[in-house]
Write a structure and sequence with these properties.
The protein is an alpha/beta fold. The protein has twelve helices and 17 strands. The chain has helices at about 15-25, 35-40, 90-105, 125-135, 150-160, 185-200, 215-230, 245-255, 275-285, 320-335, 340-360, 365-370, and strands at about 25, 70-75, 80-85, 115-120, 140-145, 165, 180, 205-210, 230-240, 265, 290-295, 315, 375, 380-385, 390, 395-400, 405-410. The strands form three sheets. The protein has a seven-stranded mixed beta sheet with strand order 9-8-10-11-12-16-17, sandwiched between helices. Helix 3 (about 90-105) packs parallel to helix 11 (about 340-360).
Amino acid sequence: MARPTRARDRLVRVTALTAALCAALLPLGGCLGTDAVRRRPIPQADLSPPADLPQAPAGAVPAMPAAFAGQRIGTGTVKVALVLPLNGQGASVGNALRNAAQLAYDEAQQPDLTILVEDDRGTPDGARDATQDALRQGAEIVLGPLFAGNVQTAANVAKTAGKPVIGFSTDATVATRGVYLLSFLPQPEVDRVVEDSVAGGKRSFAALIPETAYGNAVEAEFREVVARRGARVAAVERYPAGAPGPAVERLARVITGPAATADALFIPETAEAMPAVAAALTKAGFSPGRVRPIGTALWNEPGLFALPALQGGRFASPDRSGFSSFSGRYQARFGSVPPRVASLAYDAVTLAAALARQYGSQRFAETTLTSGSGFAGVDGTFRFRPDGQSERALAVYEIRNNAAPVVSPAPRVLAKPGI
C-alpha cells in the first residue's frame, strides 16, 4: 500500500489486486491509477434505509454458517476486535459483515493484523462480553458493533481500557470522542442536498417530515444547514408515519400554485412510504417543476423514479460505482449478494490495515483517526470528526424518467472541517 503523498499525478504501478484495494481504502492521496476502474458503467446499487437492523437484499442467501465467534482472521502482530451479531438478532447481516472483513483482509495482501471475531449475539450484554474478551486478548481497537445500544455498551468497556471504537450504527447520538461511526448517517446527506439546492439558486425551503426518530434527526440538521447557507425555512409540517394527507393540505399554500413561497421541498421519507406522500402531493396540485423536491439517500430506490411528484427531484447519496465493484467481488467470493452495509466492515478492516502499516504506534491515535483529509473508501471519501460522527463525500442525483443520473459528482476531497 502506498504512503500518502500530495503528488497526485505520480504514476504508480500496481497489480490488479492492489488497484482494487487502493480504490477501496487509503488515506487520501495514497492511491493512484484506479480511475479506469471507478469510471466503468455499473448498475445502480440498492441503498437500504439507515436503520440499525439493515435488511439483506432480495435473493440473498447466507454465504457461511454463523460459527465465527472466537475465530481469528490473520496472524499479524496488531490485534483488532470485530464485534458483530453472528447469532440472534441481525445475524444474517452480521455474518455478511464478517465476510466483508475477510475479503478486505485478503485484498490487503495479508496485512500485519489479527482480527478477533467476536459474537455480541445482537444484545448489549453480548457486546459487553465480546468487547471484554477481545480486549483481554490484546485488541487495540474495536470495529463494530452494529446496533446503537451495543455500540454504547462496547464503548463503555473500550473507553475504560483507553481503546477507540469504530461502530456501524446509524444513530448519531452514540457517537462521542473516541467512539466513531463509520455508517451512512443522514446528516451529511441533508447537508449535501441543501447545499446543492442553494448553489442552484434555491432560497426558500419547505419540509414535509414524518414523525419518526429519523425525521427528528434530519429536521434539526435541515434547519441548521438552511440557515448556515443563508436561505430560509418557509414552513415545516410533520405527519404520523403513513398518514401524510393532512400535513400536505396544511402545506399546500406554501408549495402549490403560482403564489407558492417555497422553491424547494424537503421530504426525508423511506422508499416504502414515499408513494403515499407522492400521491398526496399530486392530489394537492403540487408541481415538481415549480418547487423542487429534495431528499436523502432513502430515495435511492428505482421504484421511486417513475413517481410524477418526484420528477426533477434531487437526493444525496454515496457514489454507486464503488459498492457495485465491491458487491461483484463479494458475490464471486461468497456466492451471495451482500447487504448494503457490508461495505462498512470492508472499509473498517482496510482502514485498520492501512493505519497499522503507515503510522506505527500512532496507528489508532485520535489525531490519526480524525485526520482532516480523510480516507477513501468503497463508498467514497469519508472522515471522522472529533465528536465521533463521520462526514462523507456524496453525489447528488436527479430523478428523471425512471432513472436517477448524477448531476453533481461526489468530490474527491472533502471541504475543510467546519466549512
